Amino acid sequence: MDWNRVEGNWKQVKGKIKEQWGKLTDDDLDVIDGKRDQLEGKIQERYGYAKDQTKKDIDDWYGRQTW
């Protein structure tokens, strides 16, 4: 997975992230700033997911994106 694509287009990707994980706030997304590890941590914090589940959910979401 090439996460650099997400980091490089973070301003455009934030909307798609918010559609998928609506409990994340704009402030959360500003702090995350495209960093996958921080995205994983915030999703775990907001949704109470386990680390493995969060990684799988992000991978699934990323795979569905049409870049």
UniProtKB/TrEMBL annotation:
It comes from the Bacteria. Residues 4-56 form the CsbD-like domain. This is CsbD family protein. InterPro entries: CsbD, UPF0337_stress_rsp, YjbJ, YjbJ_sf. Pfam families: CsbD. Belongs to the UPF0337 (CsbD) family.
